[in-house]
Amino acid sequence: MKRAIIILTLSLAAAVAIGPFVWLISTSLKGSEELFAFPPTLIPHDLALENYTGVWNAVPFQTYLFNSVIVVLGTLVFNLTFCSLAGFALARYEFRGRAFVFLLVLAGIMIPKEVIIIPLYANVLKMQLADTLAGVVLPFAVDALGIFMMRQAFMAIPREIEEAATVDGVSPLRLWWNVMLPMTRPTLAALAIFTFIGTWGDFLWPLVVLKSREHFTLQVGLSYLIGAFSDNYRYVAAGAVLAAIPVLLVFLGMQKYFERGIFAGATK
Amino acid sequence: MRAYLPALFAALGLLLSTCSKEDQRVEIEFWTLQLSPTFDSYFHSLIKEYEGSHPAIKIKWVDIPYDVASQKLLASVASGSAPDLVNLSGDFLASFAHKNALAEISTLVQQDTLRMFFPHALEICRQGGKLVALPWYLNTYVLMYNTELLRQAGMGERDVPRTFSELVAFARRYKEKTGRFGLFWNIGKDSYLPIMLESEGVPMIDAEMTRALFDGSRSVALISQWVDLYRQGFLQRESIVNPGSAIIEAYQSGQVAMVLTGPVFLNRVKVNAPAIFRRTDIAPSPVGSTSRQELAAMVLSVMSSSDHPKEAAEFAMFVLDARNQIAFSKFTTTYPSVVRALSDPYFTVNDGTLESKARIVGASTLPVAEQLSGYKKHPEYFRLHEMFCEAVQSACLGRMSTKEALANAAREWNAILQKKNH
Amino acid sequence: MKAAVPYLFLLPALLFLALFALLPMGQIFYYSLLNYSAFGPSEFVGAGNFVRLVNDGNFWWTLANSFLLVLVTPVIMVVALSLALLVRREVRIGKPFRLLFFLPVITPIVIVGIIWRWIFAEEIGMLNYLLSLFSLPPVHWLTDYPTTTVSIMIVTLWRGAGYYMMVFLAGLAVIPREVEEASMIDGAGWLQQTVHITIPLLKPTLTLVFVVSSTAAIKMFTEVYTIIPGAPIANKTLVVYLYQQAFERFDFGYGSAIAVVLFLLTIAFSYANVRLMESR
Questions:
Q1: Which residues of B touch A130 (CB under 8 A)?
Q2: Where are the alpha helices (DSSP H) in B80-146?
Q3: Disulfide check for B137: which of A160, B23, B111, B334 has CB 3.0–4.6 Å away?
Q4: Above 80 in pLDDT, residue A68?
Q5: pLDDT average, residue stretch B37-41
Q6: What is the ipTM of this complex?
Q7: Same domain, residue pair A206 and A239
């Protein structure tokens, strides 16, 4: 009985959550005759897979995909490494200026990218990074929020574990890498997923930095589908679904890190 | 290993020589608004032809999405990496010109070549007595309607409105007959009401741009017609908040029977809703008592920061050449800015398709169409327009009477107009 | 040597942070004292932009709206935490649900705007249709103020619930299972155990989610921009106002002054939050 209520609640919430995405998929499979049919159809009469091949051919999808992967991987590696190092220091070391550094990190979280985009672009240009993938990656290489998240994760780990390891006389770097980091795997996974989503879906920044078509990321490239003269909704929907697939795959791959038992596994 | 060295040096030398050869060419960076990838082939062949006949010039074509155009241009200007030649919408000219971002172009091209353009289109490019752009492709308005929806309402071609007051009556009658919405027209956000007022012979602003004129009794009466239409539920509630792009969305989804829009959007209906496209017919845009029609222009401007303004202007003239403009129009269903180009059979002979009918209907208005709203030339155009739009919104939502809302907005306008004009 | 360790650990992160967040923010502080349009020379005006702000009605309205939007934070937290706890409780059934709740997060924002405008449409939209089934009058989701702010909150909740559910799941996974199991043996029910054991242990995550979601609410931009593009500026948010001044009006000095206020407000706001949450 109790279980039935839980499942019902979850199902209702899920229906609300996925409605728009279902509509997106449905639109991406519709033929032109059906797009604005009234009443709207959820399941298209004949599946128009040509929207997918169409959008694949309309823009250099492979190039965009490759660039997006490079940008995302670069941002991920930088963020996971540097944020967890800094988060560890903030959570586990007493040192002069810690409160100040923490304030700087908080300040970093508060700065909307929309606000600083002009000085940011001017600086990237001075560093000769305009129209390069490095120019897209480096300004986002460290997200202050990531430092904050990692600090919270390290703080949740019981002191005893660290003390036991220090008695064995390991170096701070080894302590971080071998002992502490594995215990924050769920947070690392969460950070990875958020960085991935944020970077994968980011549109404004790569658009400002990149100029040449061969450097475009997927989102920038896809935005050109919504053109002034050729607004093809079905292509836009198909492109959006294609762009969502890699995120879904990563999510599925990371899911096991959210499950129970990791903590136990890490301490054994 | 050693055997490779000469080859390596040779390759390196070749690389360097091609590099230095690149450096000798003058690079002109040319920005367009949302024309890629749809017109890639047109621009690639255009640029290739130009570079072929001008070996000292290299054209770097960059296309930017319309929505972020001003932001991207601003970032590039602020950081000193602005393009040489840029495609702008006529609406943006005043604010960029006022910031001295655009070069005076009449000194860069031969004066007599300016005579090839439509005078009204060229007029849009004149800001504060200076010519800061050259007109490129043009757009006018036509009435697009769904014959099937009209037939269901017991209406036909004779019911298609020819004046703005008939348009108001149509919206009322159609809804009364069918319970559905007759038309979608932006009256709040991106409001078209100024065009209606000007066409009715009521200017928004005086010629010296020192005083707002839309709070007079005649304009209050004209705007009240639309406000009442809205308040009484004859227009969709979102007509005061949705952006201009909502017009074609409402039409192609079959929500409304009629819209007033550019012939250029017909293609979008064809792609997204072919069933509705087949039932679509075209009529000339309704007009006010003066019969004046609105003209929208895309223009080309040389940035004042350009190191090669002469070369940029020369390339602009090549893009604007009648032959190249006709070729471009055939891709886009827009109109060329060059008078001679309009005599091309493409704009005069009806081949029986709807597109060609729309083209001819629109083309017939081109010689007389003009930028109706004089305040588009004010450096604070966007702010002024927004104040007007917000006044219409609060009147529609019943927060105040139309008269009161317009009087408030006029007061706000006058404060800005008098300050800026010293 | 040992004293240098935390500094070395912090160095790369702080370097990037300084270069790409704090330095540009410093530049913004500087611009806020100028009459600066990015075109041509700028002019020092001292506190002029701030004096203008104090007398600007739109500034106060958008500021109020931004703070109003923070009201959605507790709702998001309750929904996200409930989802996380339920999904975690029913491990096997929960698994597919996690994926479903996550879909709004990865739907491109442009599409989100199109779909929700269609749902909120006042005569033909789905929400008002549902209301009419219960004989309720239509709600003016897209035109009336402050209803528009509620519409924005709904979309924020829709997008945020799945996102923060993931953060909570990550936080829950770090909690030692033994601690919870020990209380089970004492005979506490699931609800009691959750309230008395699990949630207190989740405090670092709760702080995190509260700070992140409330500052996200204050800096709300994209949702407003896509869902009520045509509403009067006074019905929108501070970042939208900033964007309009800087990028549509090219009044970069004034836009920067708004940015400075936004920055100081949010930093004070979240510092207070952290203090409050960590002291409890």
A1: 81
A2: 93-98, 119-124
A3: B334
A4: yes
A5: 83
A6: 0.81
A7: yes
CB A215 within 8 A of CB A189: no
Q: Searching chain C, which residue's CA lies closest to the CA of residue B390?
A: C232
Pair (A118, A234) in one structural domain: yes
> Which residues, other chains included, contact B360 with Cβ-Cβ below 8 Å and sequence gap of 6+?
B347, B348, B350
User: CB of B136 within 8 A of CB of B337?
Assistant: yes
Burial per residue of B207-236, b for 16 or more beta-carbon CB atoms within 10 angstroms, e otherwise: eebeebbbbeeebbebbbbbbebbeeebbb
Q: For residue B3, name the pLDDT band (cuts at 50, 70, 90).
A: very low
Residues 6+ apart with CB under 8 A from A113: A120, A204, A205
Adjacent-strand bridge partners of A205: none
Write out the H or E segment, with its range, that includes residue A154. Answer: helix A144-155
Chain A closest CA to C125's CA: distance in Å?
12
Range of the domain at A25: 1-48
Structural domain total, chain A: 2
H or E, element range at A236? helix A233-254
Residue B76 in contact with residue B82, Cβ under 8 Å? yes
User: Please, what is the Cα angle at B155 between B151 and B159, to 5 degrees?
Assistant: 140
- Domains of chain B and any CATH numbers: 25-138+295-364 (3.40.190.10), 142-292+380-420 (3.40.190.10)
Check CB contact of A149 with chain C, cutoff 8 Å: yes
Give pLDDT tens digits for B336-353.
999 999 999 999 999 989
CATH code linked to domain C70-241: 1.10.3720.10
The answer to whether position A231 is within a domain reads yes
Which pLDDT tens digit goes with each residue over B377-421?
998 898 899 999 999 999 999 999 999 999 999 999 999 999 854
Q: Do A186 and C246 touch (CB under 8 A)?
A: no
By the CB < 8 Å criterion, does A172 face chain C?
yes
